[in-house]
Amino acid sequence: MSRQLPPLNALRAFEAAARLLSISQAAAELNVTPAAISHQVKALEEWLGVPLFRRLNRQVLLTDAGQTCLKGLRDGFDRLAATVEKVRGRAGEAPLTVSAAPSFAGKWLLPRLERFRRAHPDIEMRIDANSRLSDFDRDNVDIGIRYGLGRYPGLRVDRLLAENVYPLCSPQLMRGPPRLRHPRDLARHTLLHIDMPVMDEAEPTWEMWLRAAGVSDVDWTRGPHFSVSSMAIETAIAGQGVVLGSDVLCAADLAAGRLVKPFDVGLALDFGYWIVSPESAAERPKAVAFRNWLLAEARAHEASEDAAPPSQKITNLPAPKGRRFRNSTGALPDRGRNSRGRRSPRP
């Protein structure tokens, strides 16, 4: 089917002028005269039949139609540039790009990454660690590590790690004063809260843990809240409170003695970490090598957990008043993902 499109030069001229809100700056960027930019924009407006700019004395502003046109063109040019780069073969020379949330990247992945570099010195790495949802195609991401229930239609999915949460604090805080010997002693300490919107009503809370531990006289609502897990963990390491922390994210800190478990009672979660990648990229040699290494590291992590003294993991929790739970741990099913695996990473 043939596409009715305006001339590419007109589209380029408008996109530059609209993005910069300046005819002269657009002319400098495209190495043409301001008159040429104005001519191309005028031609595009005539082709579309609508004005794209409001022209003032020494300023141009976008109309509603211009704003709509700019958004579509910007996305289109970004995808066109990515496609051209792949066709030119740069994708084969690019580093292996791994997308992960900042807390997981900083607390679990990076402390282990040197082992992968030693095993595969020929593979260059790029870690895309941010809370923004990555688009595999646009961002040239090869592998993503997602936090959820593992339902990612259209992607290859491998289970990486299950997760439990425990009260965790610094050794100094546990020794006191005041000492932390019994869950009731939490009433004399600061509780650190991690807000995880990805889990909605299934988020593990101090209310859930205290009820599981049989404690009712501790005010679980007090204490600061953090939107990023690693911030709450670092606050606990600094001796400023007790965090309900993940045995995955806190593994290195527990092993190094920066954190301790004052009470060996944990909440087992249905949510966990998953390796995801597009089917088209899943079998590339670099992606296969990294995925196999991740799975081996996860097995080693879980083996070390199994070798530790047994912990009491609470799985059958009654739902707190006003909350909705759909299984024994309160984890809700994954909702509405598309082929890009769009599920919010854990902070």
Secondary structure layout plus pairing:
Layout: H1 8-20, H2 23-30, H3 34-48, E1 53-55, E2 60-62, H4 64-87, H5 90-93, E3 96-100, H6 102-119, E4 125-129, E5 143-148, E6 155-168, H7 171-175, E7 191-194, H8 206-212, E8 225-226, H9 229-237, E9 242-246, H10 251-255, E10 265-278, H11 285-307, E11 312-314
Parallel strand pairs: 3-4, 3-5, 7-8, 7-9, 10-11
Antiparallel strand pairs: 1-2, 5-10, 6-9, 6-10
Helix pairs in contact: 1-2, 1-3, 1-4, 2-3
Structural account:
The chain is of the alpha/beta class and about 350 residues long. It has a domain at about 10-90: Arc Repressor Mutant, subunit A (Orthogonal Bundle), CATH 1.10.10.10. Helices cover about 40% and strands about 20% of the residues. The chain has helices at about 10-20, 25-30, 35-50, 65-85, 90-95, 100-120, 170-175, 205-210, 230-235, 250-255, 285-305, and strands spanning about 55, 60, 95-100, 125-130, 145-150, 155-170, 190-195, 225, 240-245, 265-280, 310-315. Strands 3, 4, 5, 6, 7, 8, 9, 10 and 11 form a nine-stranded mixed beta sheet that branches. A two-stranded antiparallel ribbon has the order 1-2. Helix 8 links the parallel strand 7 and strand 8. Helix 1 packs across helix 4 (about 65-85) and helix 2 (about 25-30) crosses helix 3 (about 35-50).
